[in-house]
Specification:
The chain is an alpha+beta fold and 480 residues long. Helices cover 41% and strands 19% of the residues.
Length: 480
């Protein structure tokens, strides 16, 4: 397969649905909190009763504009809503209110790891309900499905990319950056596993050098970044095989099965005319004034790319900066620590080292631990003042995360302050040398790398509290 891959170019475009974190639904007053009792958030509007009218939720529009600006989109002065008709049991009205030819955001782009990916459009629409099929949720063996309409009417922003990606890796990078952005601007949880962010991947292949795109298949049901990459890889091979055997890829929607690691045909792909789009008669076209756009632009928080660049300008490696930005909780914590004036270098060592390891082990977020930015800053200042060594700092940070204690309290209580008193260190160093005459002789005969052994012994004797610089100097003096 690998050499066959060289004959083809892969073309990928992603359609990403982001569930907007509004309090209420996009056209109805019901709440959209996840995990409520089935069908408890279902007003007559959500149920599509006769005679009800949708009312547009301004917060959803605000979030749409904010996302558009973050994705370098134009926000046209006018957008409108359209009905997309189809029948499905989770869609009570028999149509979905979406935006067809006049979406809220157009012509954007995202720079991802040096590559520019065009964003064709982003439009607002309502989500459908959920079907719970036989076999799921304790319905094993049953022959029916249940309908939960709590999700129906939840606001979605569908972000449609240009077919600009050329590998599964580029697609994953784009998706990860998109996820970072919606999370940092606070419009979406960006959780692929829970479905608050969903991705349809359109994939086609064409002979290398060709200008004409091949027929695409659309892959649904990818619930993680790694599944997205796997699904695309599988689909590329599947399409190459078809073409190599003289067949034709058909335009269709396929479902990714992450357990079986394959895509399966779900349905032929509808064309737009199958949906009989027409303007939603119950909603006026929406005028978005330039003042409105500017008001929202003024609230734009620092975006992930700018954050990475700022961290790098503080001396962080590109890798460290990216790892921290990927974990929003850590990045916001780090920003607080920086604001309090701590040394970025020492702070990063703690965050990327002991803190990240502890969070990974306990599966906690930083704000679920008892560590405060103030306490980390205090710990760092103790290290900078040479009150404690870096090693002692590493020993106590976990306790600080567990019980919220201050570094100075732990140091005081356990007597951990650094021994810089040269007299005391000299005494211990002498003791260590006396106890290891063979090593002393070897050192004096030229085996100078034994210095590390002596330093280690002194550190052990002082439980890591001796000032390492002083220990080195004193030992060299004693050993001659
Ligand atoms: P639809 O709304 O019917 O799914 P669109 O024309 O809006 O169709 O395209 C949907 C997505 O498919 C976009 O992200 C676009 O970039 C991508 N796409 C279009 N043509 C191709 C192609 N030949 N290969 C891969 N992706 C494509
Ligand atoms: Mg589509």
């Amino acid at each position: 397969m690998e050499d066959l891959r060289d004959k083809y170019e892969v073309v990928i475009g992603l359609e990403v649905h982001a569930q907007l974190k509004t309090k209420s639904k996009i056209f109805a007053p019901d709440g959209c909190e996840f995990g409520k009792d089935p069908n408890s958030e279902t007003s007559p509007i959500t149920l599509g009763m006769p005679g009800v009218l949708p009312v547009l939720n301004k917060e959803a529009v605000n979030m749409g504009i904010l996302t558009g600006l973050a994705l370098n989109c134009e926000i046209p002065e006018r957008c409108k809503f359209d009905r997309k008709q189809y029948f499905y049991p989770d869609l009570p009205k028999g149509y979905q209110i979406s935006q067809y030819d006049e979406p809220i955001c157009v012509n954007g782009y995202l720079n991802v790891k040096g590559k520019r990916i065009g964003i064709t459009r982003a439009h607002l629409e309502e989500d459908a309900g959920k079907l719970v099929h036989a076999g799921a949720d304790g319905l094993a063996g049953s022959s029916y499905s249940l309908v939960d309409l709590n999700r129906a009417g939840t606001p979605l922003l569908e972000i449609v990319s240009e077919p600009d990606m050329r590998s599964s890796e580029e697609a994953r990078n784009y998706m990860e950056e998109l996820r970072n952005i919606v999370r940092y601007i606070g419009v979406c949880d960006g959780n692929l596993e829970e479905g608050s962010m969903r991705c349809d991947a359109n994939i086609s292949i064409m002979p290398k050098g060709s200008k004409e795109f091949g027929t695409r298949a659309e892959i649904k049901n990818v619930n993680s970044f790694s599944a997205l990459q796997r699904a695309i890889e599988y689909e590329i091979d599947r399409q190459i095989e078809i073409v190599e055997e003289g067949g034709k890829v058909v335009q269709e929607t396929r479902l990714w099965d992450d357990n079986a690691r394959e895509t399966k045909s779900m349905r032929g792909k509808e064309d737009a005319h199958d949906y009989r789009y027409f303007p939603e008669p119950d909603l006026m076209p929406l005028k978005i004034s330039r003042e409105w756009v500017e008001e929202i632009r003024a609230k734009m928080p620092e975006l992930p790319q700018a954050k990475r660049e700022r961290y790098m300008s503080l001396g962080l490696s590109e890798y460290d900066a990216s790892v921290i930005v990927e974990q929003m909780g850590l990045a916001l914590f780090f920003d607080e620590v920086l604001k309090l004036g701590a040394s970025p270098k020492i702070a990063v060592n703690f965050i990327m080292g002991e803190i990240a390891a502890y969070l990974k082990e306990t599966k906690l977020e930083i704000n679920e631990t008892k560590l405060t930015p103030e306490n980390l800053v205090e710990l760092i200042s103790l290290i900078e003042k040479n009150t404690i060594s870096n090693n002692i700092g590493k020993q106590i940070i976990v306790d600080m995360m567990k019980d919220g204690s201050k570094a100075s309290e732990i140091v005081e209580k356990r007597g951990l302050s650094q021994i810089s008193d040269t007299g005391a260190i000299k005494e211990i160093a002498q003791k260590v040398c006396d106890a290891n005459p063979a090593q002393v002789t070897a050192y004096k005969n030229g085996k100078v790398q034994l210095l590390g052994f002596f330093v280690g012994q002194v550190m052990k004797e002082t439980k890591g509290r001796a000032n390492p610089k002083a220990v080195n100097e004193i030992l060299k003096e004693i050993l001659g």
